[in-house]
Amino acid sequence: MRKEEKNLSLKENFVGWCETKSRKDSLGLLIGGILAGVYIGFASQLFTLVTATPLASFGFTQLLGGLSFSVGLVMVVLGKADLFTGNCLLFARCLEGYRHLKATLYNWLLVYLGNLGGSLLLVFLYAHSGLFKMGGGIIVERIAAIAQAKVNLTFQEALVRGILCNWLVCLAVLFCIMAENNLNRILAIPGPIATFVALGYEHSVANMYLLPIGMMAQKYLQTTPSITWGKIFFANLLPVTLGNIVGGSFFVGFLYFLLFDKEK
């Protein structure tokens, strides 16, 4: 295959993926969003477990935690679920007209609500599982520490970390769109995902699980509650979500859409 044909194929795959996501009905988007919220929550639980006890070094522990978290996107991609951060790639189609902008915003809203619903469902189930006691209290302390650090970020810190995070997440999703089979998709995911997690960037959907479960962990630690719903939404989810939109929509969706056009 000639280079020109290959590059055209990349754009066609990208546009085709966007069209498939845009054609999903409201119920499908909500269900797909709920499933993705749960899958990313599972990955967040695994990250918490892996990083609960420091290993050889802080960096190595974070890297191992990042690799473990990457299973979440694997489940989302292979399970055909809908992740808000990944769907930020749909912004590229908005350049083609108002109709695409309207459909994209509607898609984002339903998927975001679905992701939040799935995350809170997992929080509810985990809180009633008795697993807070696992590891002799190490897990509940780690859960609370993660959430505490996130709600204490400044607006600017959370925004920028959100941009950097979804630059990498959407790059992983783009790799999956261009991959020829599921094996290649699985191999393409860990690199970008482990990088964003290890470096401490902020993922809005992961935080939909990590922050509420951290708030509930306070009861087990019998400490003065410092994590509230107000802090969860306004100190973290708001700036991180805005950052995720910028990182995925512009730095991946928009720029690669232009790149594929230029290389035809």
| CATH level-4 homologous superfamily | Glycerol uptake facilitator protein
Judged by helices, strands and strand pairing, the structural class is mainly alpha
Count of beta strands:
0
Assign the CATH class.
Mainly Alpha
Report the portion of residues in β strands. under 5%
What's the number of helices? 12
Judging by the overall fold, what is the CATH architecture?
Up-down Bundle
Element order: H for helix, E for strand: HHHHHHHHHHHH
Radius of gyration: 18 Å
Largest sheet: none
CATH topology category name: Glycerol uptake facilitator protein
Cα shape:
globular
Report low-confidence residues grouped into runs of 5 or more. 1-8
Average pLDDT value? Answer: 92
Helical content class: over 70%
Integer tally of domains: 1
In whole angstroms, the N-to-C terminal distance is 14 Å
